[in-house]
Predict the 3D structure of the following.
Amino acid sequence: MVLSNAKTEIDLAFTRKDLKGLSYENAFGGSTSFLRRRYTKDLKDVDIAITGVPFDQAVTNRPGARFGPRAIREASTLQTFDPPYGWDFDPMQELNIIDYGDLAFDYAKVQEFPTLLEQHISKFLSNNVSTIVLGGDHFITYPILKAYFNKLGSPLSLLQFDAHSDTWPDHDEDRIDHGTMFYKAVKSGIIAPKTSVQVGIRTTNEDTLGVNIIDAREVHENGPVEVAKKIKSILGNQPTYLTFDIDCLDPAFAPGTGTPVWGGLSSGQAAILLRDIAGINMIGGDVVEVSPSYDTSGATAIAGAHAATELLCIWGSNSKNKRA
């Protein structure tokens, strides 16, 4: 790929005239929207919006995921020159994608945050725009799920890539904790456990609440191709929200996270899994728990950017099949 100094427009995050298309701009320069998509608040004719949620006040260990959205966006600039590898679908060429920017909230008024985030996502859904959210700690998925549940009017299936189940008991709805929100989501009927799957789990929580568990060892022993088939058989055609906690990956591949656990998936395994589950009825998704300050190499943010791009591909291929 060669850039033409005479013809290449810079800062495509602002100067892009069309919502579609690849971006031939120096990866090390310009404004870093996700995949160089247009920064805009205009939702007209938009298929899917990227939005950041720089919140990390629900963590149990190391903070820093508030810097995740910025780091993921910067890492994504390396992916804008070519279509995503291994897909017959290029979201940058076939979808109207925007970067809406980040949710604004008062960090000193933590109890207001869940409602603000739910309203933020509801704004997109009321305009028939789906979302891929860049976190932020994993608590953010709970208000997002509420917004999708209210739009859908029935329980969703959850596909969760994670080292932790995040279903530890918590009977206080006012608590904001990134390890208990899916307990609340199951108990309140937001997600349907029988058609939900948690992949990469490697921490002990004996009460699964009926959610299907594919732990990290099963991925290692059976391989990502077979695991992807199992995931699809469980989800069926149920509307599915996909949440990708970066600590699903082993710390060797993603050290920049708050609660790392050894024995996780490799980035190669995750890539195969995400590609082979194409065809699921994915309605939205997020990538969470990227804490760049614990990874001077930037590898964790790079993994987060690739995961978010794969989510765009999964959503887009599903949307394309529905239109066909």
